[in-house]
Write a structure and sequence with these properties.
heterodimer, A: mainly alpha, B: mainly alpha, 7 helices, 2 strands, transmembrane helix (chain B), Dolichol kinase (chain B), membrane (chain B), transmembrane (chain B)
Chain lengths: ~55, ~200
């Protein structure tokens, strides 16, 4: 579980870095697609990570 | 507790970042970047081998994937195949970039729409989304419609030993390339020009 959280953190980082690189290289459409396409699943995943389940 | 379905979707959409490959220099530390593709694919296969052997378990797997090749392997195989054929000059760059982004974003969208609204709505949502992505990147309605249509058509059939994650990449780019190379489709700038 801890590894999965660490891995998800890497995914968010990779996504942000890739979007910035495309933006800085003037590939605005690709940068926008990366951000917009990942926004909803990324947001929902962040929400599910914040939910605490108590037994 | 992570929502496994959402985790799986996010893994899928993040795969769109594979297109960063096209901004890599041709040689990395003196090594052709194509070797990076081969090493990456072999790493994925190795991880899958250990997962199927029961050495470790991965989050986000479907139940039926416990005994058969997982979706991420099919997707990585499709992407690596596109990158390989791009490097040897078969697939144009613009088709490769757009197809990788389209497949990574549209497949989860179809899955969600199928689940919430039904198969027909999933089909049309996938078609519209894939045409839109192709149009934004390629800028040719002809290729956008063909690529989008082929993508959603090959997503439909379910095979045990062949996954839509692979088919949704290989078939659209193959058909578009055939149209482009044969001259049946309109001419266009195939290199990734900045927006």
């Amino acid at each position: 579980m801890e590894f999965t959280k660490f891995y998800i953190g890497i995914l968010y980082t990779v996504l942000i870095i890739c979007s910035i690189i495309f933006y800085l290289n003037n590939y605005y459409i690709i940068a926008s697609l990366l951000i917009l396409g990942n926004m909803l699943p990324g947001y929902k995943l962040a929400l599910s990570l914040m939910v605490k389940h108590e037994n | 507790m992570i929502d496994q379905a959402i985790y799986r979707r996010f893994n899928h959409t993040v795969a769109s970042c594979f297109v960063i490959y096209f901004l890599f220099p041709e040689y990395i530390l003196g090594v052709d970047r194509l070797y990076l593709v081969v090493v990456f694919w072999l790493s994925i296969v190795l991880i899958e081998y250990f997962r199927l052997s029961g050495v470790f378990a991965l989050d986000g797997m479907r139940d039926y994937e416990s005994s058969r090749i997982a979706g991420f392997v099919w997707f990585a195989t499709g992407t690596c195949a596109i990158l390989f054929f791009y490097e040897i000059g078969v697939f144009p760059e613009i088709f490769a970039v757009s197809t990788i982004i389209m497949a990574s974003l549209v497949d989860p969208l179809i899955g969600e729409c199928n689940k919430k609204y039904g198969d027909l709505q999933g089909f049309f949502a996938g078609f519209i989304a894939s045409v839109l992505i192709y149009q934004l990147i390629i800028g040719s309605l002809f290729y956008s419609l063909i690529g989008g249509l082929v993508a959603v058509l090959v997503e439909r059939p379910k095979f045990k030993w062949l996954d839509d994650d692979l088919l949704m990449q290989i078939f659209p780019i193959l058909i578009m390339t055939i149209f482009y190379v044969s001259g049946l489709g309109p001419d266009l700038q195939v290199s990734l020009g900045s927006d």
